[in-house]
Amino acid sequence: MTTTQQQATASKERDPDRFLRLLRQSAVFVILAAMMIGFTIAQPAFIRINNLMSILQAVSVVAILGVGVTVTLAVGGFDLSIGAVAASSVMAASYIMIVWGLGVWITVPLVLAFGALVGLGNAFLVVKLKVPDLLATLSVMFLLTGLQLIPTAGRSISAGLILPDGTAASGRYDPNFLLIGRSKLFGVVPFSVIIMLAVAVLLYVLTERTRIGRLLFATGGNELATRLAGAPTDRLKTLAYVISGTLAALGGIVVAARVGRGDVSSGASLLMDSVAAALIGFAVLGLRRPNTFGTIVGAVFVGVLLNGLTMLNAPYYAQDFVKGAVLVGALGLTYGFSRKKT
User: What's the domain range around 326?
Assistant: First the structure.
């Protein structure tokens, strides 16, 4: 290596911009590693394989919904209805099996179709009627939150449910359906984690490795320019909301299969947790844009944090504050250290 090359290399190593860039790219992973080390020191049981699998199982639904949010963010939208879609899917799956007496092979497609239909409805409001995405999906959220309570008069759904007409439901949960949320591969890896990874890989390939993915981000970056270039922006936005609704329904299926009942409060925290995962994903690798890999990392980040706090007996009422602080910190690291060259 020549003297000039050595000087150039040394200059790069001293370049503060390079250091800040590396800090932005690795900050989330450094903080995640520090949390895991700290929790392990404070509570050695934290690092055991059973607990780690428990963390992944706990965040699987949040990650699945978060990926749906990520796709809508990619087209410049935002889906506030995902939590309500997931909760309605829990109730729908339970109603189909408990009241209608149908099995898993009919229940799952029906619930997924329900989620896709809601996504199509969101797209109609946003794309055709030009309703702002936040208002459109917020109204759908309220609609679904009330609609899911009507068939059972506000009751949770379980075997022997008393219907509003006074009759008792005679159906039960299909044992094969419960395997979705309770079975484990090789007795170690929960099936819900496998579903999460499959969704992550599929959506990563779609958004990062295909022409459709590039057009999705182009639509979110500059919809007018993308349309003038000949891309079907309306169809792309519709696709994004349909994907979001379908993934929310899939998350609801996993929740229903895990708890084995249609709980009216099952989707209470899913919206905020999935949005947090998607937004923390902006900080992963310093991409500063919605991305599937970052969303999965964000979900795991939040899951590790909450699991560690629980094992340390931290008060439950402080957890939302901690999640908010983490979100602010992660986004601050991504945007706060940005430096503009003059």
Answer: 20-335
Domain assignment of residue 220, yes or no: yes
- The C-alpha angle 190, 35, 61, rounded to 5 degrees, equals 30
Supply the pTM of this predicted model. Answer: 0.89
CA-CA distance, 324 to 321, in Å (whole number)? 5
Cβ burial 198-225 (10 Å sphere, 16+ → b, else e)? ebbeebbebbeeeeebebbbbbbeebee
pLDDT one-digit tens code per residue, 98-141: 999 999 999 999 999 999 999 999 999 999 999 999 999 999 99
Confirm whether 9 is domain-assigned: no
Is 254 part of a structural domain of the chain? yes
Which amino acid would we find at residue 150? I
Q: What is the CATH number of the domain that holds 213?
A: 1.10.3470
pLDDT digits (tens, 9 = 90+) for 95-105: 999 999 999 99
The span from the CA of 174 to the CA of 332, in Å, is: 47
Identify whether 2 is part of a domain. Answer: no
CB neighbour burial string for 291-319, b if at least 16 within 10 angstroms, e if fewer? bbbbbbbbbbbbbbbbbbbeeeeeeeeeb
Domain count, the chain: 1
DSSP 127: I
Q: How many CA atoms lie within 13 A of 324 on its CB side?
A: 5
Q: Crossing angle, helix 233-259 and helix 82-98, to 10 degrees? A: 50
How far apart (Å, rounded) are the C-alpha atoms in residues 299 and 4? 46
Q: Is 48 left (phi over 0), alpha (psi -120 to 50) or beta?
A: beta
